[in-house]
Write a structure and sequence with these properties.
The chain is 15% helix and 35% strand. Mean pLDDT is 77; it is low at 64-76. It is built from 2 helices and 11 strands; from the N terminus they run H-E-E-E-H-E-E-E-E-E-E-E-E. With 158 residues, the protein is of the alpha+beta class. The termini are far apart. The protein has 2 domains: 3-49, no CATH class; 69-156, OB fold (Dihydrolipoamide Acetyltransferase, E2P), CATH 2.40.50. It has helices spanning 3-16, 67-76, and strands spanning 20-25, 28-34, 45-49, 81-84, 89-92, 108-109, 114-120, 123-128, 133-138, 144-146, 151-156. The protein has a 4-stranded antiparallel sheet, covered by helices on one side.
């Protein structure tokens, strides 16, 4: 149930004079109670929602903060090109669980070569290299969530 639907339900309950409404669906339960026989201005509406958590979203391990280390290599070696994520999603280094990774550190890539896959809303998007060069560093762990514009690879164009 959307927030706007809940708000409309609360308004309906407060206007109609109903003292209690209970709705239960497969993923949540909501109970709205009002105290009757009070003037409208002092009417109290109680809302209790008990959501049931859907499948957990995998989160990168806490021991792998990459933000500070991402900026350091580009400052030290200004000739490196950073390939960034064009979207939010889950980063995968290979096309499947039993398949080889697209690229490793030290591999040469051409402009347009597939470097990884980012899954967004059940769609698997191949991310291609913007430049030709050599992979210097992979900045994201396999099966980790990535943000828009997050650095993924460092490439030496030389």
């Amino acid at each position: 149930m959307k927030l706007t639907e809940i708000q409309e339900l609360i308004k309906f309950v407060s206007r109609s004079g109903v003292t209690e409404v209970e709705i239960e669906q497969k993923d949540f339960k909501i109970i709205i109670k009002t105290e009757s026989k009070k003037p409208r201005k002092e009417e109290t509406v109680y809302v209790q929602a008990a959501p049931i958590a859907p499948n957990p979203i995998p989160v990168a391990p806490a021991a792998a903060p990459t933000a500070p280390s991402q900026a350091e290599p580009t400052e030290e070696k200004s000739n490196l090109i950073t390939i960034k994520s064009p979207m939010i999603g889950t980063f995968y280094r290979s096309p499947g669980p039993d398949k080889d990774v697209f690229v490793n550190v030290g591999d040469s890539v051409q402009k347009g070569s597939v470097l990884c896959i980012i899954e967004a809303m059940k769609l698997f998007n191949e991310i291609e290299s913007e430049v030709s060069g050599k992979i210097v560093k992979v900045l994201v762990d396999d099966a980790s969530p990535v943000e828009y514009d997050q650095p993924l690879f460092l490439v030496d164009p030389a």
